[in-house]
Design goal:
The chain is an alpha+beta fold and about 350 residues long. It has 13 helices and 5 strands. It folds into 2 domains: about 100 residues, PAS domain (Beta-Lactamase), CATH 3.30.450; about 200 residues, Hypothetical protein af1432. Bound molecules: fe (ii) ion (FE2) (2 copies).
Length: about 350
């Protein structure tokens, strides 16, 4: 009787191990199928950021067999600064145990072209909840990005037409936004901003005064001092620019940077009196470029103030009105250009 029981037990145990193996093998097969057929790059890394497994799509992207990828890191495949950013993201996920969801980034491919991808990284944890690696999923959205860019270019071009109309009506500011854009580009490059951020900053500069189109020309071109009410109307242009741009799905914080381009670090700017780090770096650059370009140019109510007065304004207010690091960059570039406005070197609008 006893041996009958234990034989039945053994059979049950054998059956359940068999079932478990079948389930495991099915799950492995499903996972492998998913990994091999999903059109996203999937990769697993250990806690030293070494790649421990990739799917077919990932390997095909590098035109390498998976075994040539395993054990390597992003530094073996991507330019150093790009790999460094990836490394920092992996480290963040490992250290905090928090995921990074849908980060949009541009990747330089081995053939020298860029693609646009969205990346999600999640921590892999052991039973005790400790992060022991990361799982990354990267999706190529270049085609979508290109069509978005085309739409955006169309919007930007329409807005630029508006801006040109404004400049034609207001000859004193003719070329102002373009020159502000040139100065901003130079500063951002000196600050080693990445290509996309520089592009967005240039776009912000081109559009920063678009709201002025709503201000009566008699006020914009008034030769004398503005009344308090008129000055208030002119100040409104920062908010009006923001309101005009906000409905469009601009990249990053473009409308907000424009909203802030007359803010000052000490809170004495307008329209919201923002202070210090409440002001975006983009807006801090725009503010300085705007002052620099305006002071060097003629205005209906005054002559051009000249480089000495302009530099004095920047130096005296470095750290209180204007960002010190950006002022230092501007002073250095102007000094290298023999105290001449470097943005006029290649400007044909003068
Ligand atoms: Fe402005
Ligand atoms: Fe301006």
């Amino acid at each position: 009787m006893k041996s009958k029981d234990s034989s039945a037990k053994r059979k049950r145990k054998h059956r359940s191990i068999k079932e478990l193996n079948t389930t495991l093998s099915l799950e492995r097969q499903l996972l492998q199928n998913l990994l091999d057929n999903i059109p996203d790059a999937i990769y697993f890394k250990d806690d030293k950021n070494r790649i421990i497994r990739v799917n077919r799509f990932y390997a095909e992207g590098f035109k390498l067999p998976p075994e040539d990828i395993i054990g390597k890191t992003d530094f073996d495949f991507f330019p150093k600064d790009q790999a460094q950013k990836m490394f920092e993201d992996d480290l963040y996920v490992l250290k905090t145990g928090k995921p990074i969801i849908g980060k949009i980034e541009r990747t330089l491919l081995p053939n020298g072209t860029y693609n646009c991808v969205t990346t999600t990284k999640i921590p892999i944890k052991n039973k005790k909840g400790k992060s022991i690696g990361t799982l990354g999923v990267t999706r190529d959205i270049t085609a979508y990005d290109n069509s978005e860019r085309t739409n955006l270019d169309m919007i930007i071009n329409s807005l630029k037409v508006l801006d040109k109309i404004l400049e034609t009506k207001d000859p004193y500011t003719f070329g102002h936004t373009r020159r502000v854009s040139m100065i901003a580009e130079r500063i951002a490059k000196e600050l080693k901003w990445d290509e996309n951020r520089v592009l967005e900053l240039k776009m912000s500069a081109e559009l920063h005064d678009i709201g002025k189109i709503l201000i009566p020309l008699e006020i914009l071109n008034k030769p004398g001092k503005l009344s308090d009410l008129e000055y208030k109307m002119v100040q409104e242009h920062a908010k009006q620019s923001y309101d005009m741009l906000k409905p469009y799905s601009f990249p990053s914080q473009l409308p907000e940077a424009i909203y802030q381009h007359h803010e000052r670090l000490d809170g004495n700017g307008y329209p919201r009196g923002l202070m210090g780090d409440k002001i975006l770096p983009e807006a801090k650059i725009l503010a300085i470029c705007d002052v620099l370009e305006s002071m060097i140019s003629h205005r209906p109510y005054r002559q051009a103030l000249g480089m000495d007065v302009t530099l004095k304004e920047l130096k005296e207010n470095s750290g209180n009105k204007y960002d010190r690091e950006i002022v230092d960059v501007v002073l250095r570039i102007i000094n290298e250009n023999n105290n001449k406005p470097f943005w006029l070197n290649s400007d044909s609008s003068q």
